[in-house]
Amino acid sequence: MAAGGNPYRTRLIGRLPPSDFVGARVKCTIMPSIHSPKSIFSYRKFWAQRFGVAPFLPMSRAGMEALGWDSCDVILITGDAYIDHPSFGMALIGRLLEAQGFRVGIISQPDWRSADDFRQLGRPNLYFGVTAGNMDSMVNHYTSERKIRSDDAYTPGGLAGRRPDRAATVYAQRAKEAWPGVPVVLGSIEASLRRLAHYDYWSDTVRRSILMDSKADLLIYGNAERALVELTHRLAQGEPIRDIHDLRGTAFVVAQGWKPDADWRELDQSHLEEAGGHPIHFAGKPEARQKTVLRLPAFDSVKTSRPLYAHASRLFHLESNPGNARALVQAHGARDVWVNPPPLPLATPELDALYELPYARAPHPDYGEANIPAWEMIRFSVNIMRGCFGGCTFCSLTEHEGRIIQSRSEASVLREIEAIRDRTAGFTGIISDLGGPTANMYRLACKDKAIEAACRRFSCIYPEICKRLETSHAPLLALYRKARALPGIRKILIGSGVRYDLAIRSPDYVRELVTHHVGGYLKVAPEHTESAPLAKMQKPGMASFEQFARLFAQFSRAADKEQYLIPYFIAAHPGTSDEDMLHLALWLKRNRFRPDQVQTFLPTPMALATAMWYSGRNPLKRVTESSESVEIVRTGRQRKLQKAFLRYHDPASWPILREALHRMGYSDLIGNGKQHLVPTVNPFNEKARGKKRELAQRGKYAKEKG
Fold first, then answer.
1. For the CA atoms of 615, 619, 622, 628, what is the dihedral angle to 10 degrees?
2. Which residue positions in the chain have pLDDT lower than 50?
3. What is the pLDDT of residue 290?
4. With the C-alpha atoms ordered 69, 75, 81, 87, is the resulting torsion angle positive or negative?
5. What is the pLDDT of residue 399?
6. Which pLDDT does position 396 carry in this prediction?
């Protein structure tokens, strides 16, 4: 089966209301549901399992020799420091492959200026696995204003400059140079976000798929475990990587027009839809969908046509549900980039086993006593789930982890807390977080798996929470209570952001959270107050935030605790006008919020909001020549102004705000009263001048008396 899936079963469920789907008119009622895939821990182990478990995966020849190895089967190259902990991608993947019986080495933060560092562990028997690290290298290097960051949380000492720009591409090229003929497999977030043609904010151009520039043999996107385990075993059995085209969650380059076999059909979607014309259908027999590939607009087309870029982005996101997604193909000159449907989520037992592999739970000893900020941040935290069905258009989670929540069992989480208590140096009894992409989506899912497999909504909770979504927080409450009852655990804090529109559905959860799990401050992300930008973000209105804030205050008082909400807001998001930012600033002032750290929208590759920002069109709806346009903030000065509205209380923001308020016709908001947004003059300078006058008068009086 070339698309990499398992057989479907079908079920007749009746016509569903169009509101449950985005951009699709329901024509057929056959809904696919995927059988359980093969467990990632059910493969026969490779012969090298005889070497046992390494205290740390080796980073040098000496480390390999100490383990009795003469070579590595797989070498993982990463832009991060190697920390043997499941929150760090290379450790998680490395330990998973070790559990399959393979010998895995790590090349961490190699000097990319030559190929020498890429030879330090010798030639891998199977392949190089390449990643930029836990963060996209460009986001790691540059602020939203394209200024170079001065530090890197994933590097010993927090030092910047230990990885190149576009690290995954550079590392892949150097690995090819060091060992010609050895397969190179790309993975992690930098590869996921660049698997097709994408707008690149840092160069202000549309760039080709990362496969074209890196010359990698295969790209694994999203949660890579299922594809990577099967790939590694098949390569170990002698199958050439050039013949492996049937793994879900993978992308590769083929000759233009290539198909896995003659039964496949291509559906050409490379042109804009006609206004009033018929939409992109998802219905049809599951068997036909399994052997259908959608042709996206070619790289040359999306590079020159902004509406076509938005159209391609819409198609890409509509094919993101592993239950019904079709393969995608995009021409890059004379070749095609082929993207198989997304990976099937891991079942709870698989996720449990993955997170309970024998991690050392510490940085590699080679780093000595060096401080690694990212490690300090997560060393006492526990990841309890993956994925997010929020569908925020500016967020990369949709493109990388997907919308289906994958949760660990309660027992597995409790065992990890005990492991932290017993094995992590410096533990004082406080767990810093039980969370993941969000704090409170643990075990939340669609009530009907057949509908979940067929759904093509961009979000399960926007514009309103789907009636089919299970929103009970009871499993999370039970986990919290059992976790804090463990011997040696003084407190469980929640550091992940709380999705408050879900939380208010379970007031008992809010009470428990506020009473026991807030360390003075709680992060939430309303992002904006105005309906226009919120609609482009796919975020709820302020009514749900205000309801949550009331519950937070009520339960804080009941617990006799002084606690505060820390709301996060975004400036310059697509669809945001200067007047929207003014109203947000007035709301902040009215509610006595003075944000210290504020975010200006950063267009990351493949995100829906990035498609809006680049194209000026709205891909949440069908894209035609005359479809909805989106207001975009592009210039540095206007971005600076919108950020200044969030920092209305900062004297450095007042000059640009005064100028803007005069221009916008809101001069009445300038003054020195409580009702004004910014003062007429800087009161600190005024105070200084007044003091100077007072001293001068005193001097004059003393002189006259003298």
1. -60
2. 1-33, 276-283, 686-687, 689-690, 700-706
3. 87
4. negative
5. 83
6. 87
One-character DSSP codes across 96-109: HHHHTT--EEEEES
Q: At what angle do helices 410-423 and 348-355 cross, to 10 degrees?
A: 10
Token pair belonging to 453? 């497999």
Whether 36 and 349 have beta carbons less than 8 Å apart is answered as no
Written as six digits, the tokens of 286 are 């599951």
Among residues 380, 371, 375, 268, the alpha carbon closest in space to that of 328 is found at 268
Q: Which two tokens stand for residue 482?
A: 């059992």
Q: What is the pLDDT of residue 274?
A: 65
SS3 content of the chain, % helix, strand, coil (to 5): 35, 15, 50
What 3-state DSSP class applies to 525? strand
The one-letter code for the residue type at 275 is A
The one-letter amino acid code at 143 reads T
pLDDT of residue 373: 97
SS (H, E, C) 9-27: ECCECCCCCHHHCCCCCCC
Omega into 341 within 30° of 0, i.e. cis? no
pLDDT tens digits, 344-397:
999 999 999 999 999 999 999 999 999 999 999 999 999 999 999 999 999 988
Q: How many other CB atoms sit within 10 Å of the CB of residue 579? A: 14
Q: SS3 of 698, please?
A: helix
Q: What is the pLDDT of residue 277?
A: 43
Joined together, the tokens standing for residue 104 give 């895995």
Distance separating alpha carbons of residues 84 and 77, to the nearest angstrom:
14
Instruction: Determine which helix (DSSP H) or strand (DSSP E) holds 78, and give its type and residue range.
Output: strand 74-78
Q: Give which of 524, 529, 526, 538 is closest to 609, Cα–Cα.
A: 538
**Tell me, what's the pLDDT at 28?**
31
Beta pairing class for 385-386 and 381-383: unpaired
Alpha-carbon distance of 644 to 598, in angstroms, equals: 9
In DSSP terms, which residues pair with 570 in a beta bridge? 599
DSSP track, 115-184: SGGGGTT---SSEEEEE--SS-HHHHHB-TTSPBPSB-TTSGGGBS-SS-TTHHHHHHHHHHHHSTT--E
Fold: same for 8-30+61-275+282-339 and 380-563: no
Domain ranges within the chain, ordered by starting residue: 8-30+61-275+282-339, 380-563, 572-602+635-706
CB atoms within 10 A of CB 14: 6
Residue 333 burial by Cβ neighbours in a 10 Å radius (0-12, 13-18, 19+): exposed
| AA letter at 502 | L
CA 365 to chain CA centroid, Å, is: 30
According to the model, what pLDDT value does residue 343 have? Answer: 96
Six-digit token string for 652:
């450095």
CATH of domain 380-563: 3.80.30.20
CATH topology for the 8-30+61-275+282-339 domain: Rossmann fold (3.40.50)
User: What does the DSSP 8-state code read for residue 50?
Assistant: G
